[in-house]
Amino acid sequence: MNIDIIQWSVFIGLTLAMALATAWQVKRMGGRSTDSNREFFLAGGNLSWPFIAGSITLTNLSTDQLVGMNGNQMLLLAWWEIAAIIGLLMLAFIFLPIYYRNNCTTTTELLERKYGSKYLRASVSLLFLLGNIFIYLPIMLYTSSLFLKTMFGIDTPIIVISAMLAVVGAAYGISGGLRAVAVYDTISGVGILALSIAVLVLAMAAIDFDFSGIPMERLSMIGDSESPIPWPTLLTGMLFIQMFYWSTNQTITQRAMAAPSIREGQKGVLAAAGIRILFIPAIVAVPGVVAYKLFGDLGDATYGQIVAHVLPGWMSGAFAAFMAAAVLTSYTSVLNSSVTLYVCDMHEQFLKSKPDVGRLNTVISLVFMVLSIALVPVYSGAVSIINLVQELNGLLSMPILSAFILGLVFKNVDARAAMLALLFGTSLYAYFTFVWAPFHYIHMMAITLFACIGFGLLLNTVLFRKVASIPFLQRQARNAA
Fold first, then answer.
1. Residue 295, pLDDT above cutoff 70
2. Beta carbons within 10 angstroms of residue 462's beta carbon
C-alpha cells in the first residue's frame, strides 16, 4: 500500500511541477505577436530550436508509439522509427524552405498558393481533420488510458480515464496555444526519454541480456510476406508514408514553421532526427520483445506490464507522470493543429475573415475534444493498435500527398483535377482495404499514390485541356541546349 501511495504522490507532484515550469517558461519567453493567428498557432514565430526538437519528438513519441509498437513484441516494428529519419530530412531540406518562402501558417496554405484555389486548400484540410478527429485523437486517448490502467492496476473504465486526459489536454491548448504545448513537450520530453531508456536497460537486465528462447521472427529485422512490415515495403510505400507524416502533416510541420527563421527551424528538425537515431527505435521495440520472454504474448498491454515489472514504485510513478505528459502534449498538439486547419482554411476562408481567434479556438477545441472522447470505445477491440493506425492512414495520407506532389513537381495542373484525384485515391484505397487486398497495405499505399498522380494528370489533360509540365526538367533541357 505504501508503494501505491508513493507512486501516486510522485505522479501528482511531477505533473504539477511540469505544469508550473511550463507556465514560468512561457511567461519568460515573451515576444507576443499582434497577429492572433500567428500567436495562437505559430507561437508568435518565437520557438527556438531546442523547443522545436522537443516538441516534434514528443508529438510523435506518445503512448500510441510506446504502447502500440511494443505491443507487437517484434524488433521489426522499429523500422517505422528508423525510416522516419528520411522524412525529417525531407522536411528540413525540401519542404521547410518552401513553407518559409511562401509564408505559410498551414501546410495546406501552400496548396492554395500553388493551385490558386481555396477550395482545394479546404478539401485537403477536411481530410486532415477527419484523420485527426476520427483516428489520431481517440487512439491517443485509448492507448494512454490503457497504459495507465495496466501500470497502476486500477479498475476505472478506460472511457473515464480518457475523458480526464482529454479535458486537461484541451485546457493546455486553449489557454496557451502552441507556445505552451511546445514548452510542455520539451520539459516532459527530457523525462520520458530518460525513463524510457531506463526501462530499456532494466528490461534487458531482467533477462540477463539473454534473448535466447525468443522466436526468431520476433528478433528478425527482415520481415517476410506474413509479417507486419515485409522487407520490400521499405522500398515502396514506407518512403511515402514518411514523406506525408513528417513533411505535410500540419501537426508536425507547425512546430518547424514556428521558428523565427528557417535556419532555426532546420536546426530543430535536425536535432529531432538526431534524437530519433540515437534512442527511439530501441525504446519502441526492445521492451516488448523482452516482455514476450517474461510474460508471453500480451498485445497492447505489454508496455504497461513491463514498466510495472522493472521499475520500483516511486520511479514508475515518475514514469506515469511523464507518460501522461507525453499523451497530453501529443493530444494537445493534434488538437491545436486541427483548430489551426479549421480556423485558417475553413472559417476565415468561407465564414468570417476576421474572427475572434481566442473564442473560436475555445469553442472548436471543445467540440473536437468531445468527439474524440466519444470515439474511444471504437478502438478498444483492436488486435494491434499501431498496425490499425497505419492501415487507416492510407485512406487520407496518399491522396493528400498526391495533391502536394502534383502542385510542387508539376506546373499548370488544374485544382479541380487535384480535387478529383483526392476523391479517387480515397475510394481506391478504401476498396483495397475493405473489399480486395491484392498486396500488403504498405504496397497499396504506393500504388494509391501513383494512381492518384496519374489520374490527376489524365483529368488535367482530357477534361480540363491543360498540359502539365515539369519545370525542373525544362530547366535542365535549356541548360543542356
1. yes
2. 10
CA-based nearest residue to 124, from 371, 407, 345? 345
Place of cell 480556423: 343
What pTM does this model have?
0.85
Pick from 322, 318, 393, 326: nearest CA to 59: 326
With 0-12 CB in 10 A as exposed, 13-18 as middle and 19+ as buried, what is 203?
Answer: buried
- Specify the long-range contacts of residues 353-359, CB closer than 8 Å, at least 24 apart: 357/36, 357/37, 357/40, 358/36, 358/40
Q: How many CB atoms are closer than 10 A to CB 5?
A: 11
Give the pLDDT confidence of 226-244 residue by residue, as tens digits: 888 999 999 999 999 999 9
Give me the pLDDT at residue 63, please.
66
* Residue tagged 527563421 (cell numbers): 261
Q: How many CB atoms lie within 10 A of CB 8?
A: 14
Residue 449 CA, distance from chain mean position? 20
> How does DSSP classify residue 209?
T
User: How do the domains of the chain map onto residue ranges?
Assistant: 2-382
DSSP category for residue 257: T
Is the pLDDT confidence value at 337 over 50? yes
The residue to which cell 519568460 is assigned: 28
Give whole-number Cα distances, 475 to 252, 469, 471, 478, in Å.
32, 11, 6, 5
Say which CATH class 2-382 falls into: mainly alpha
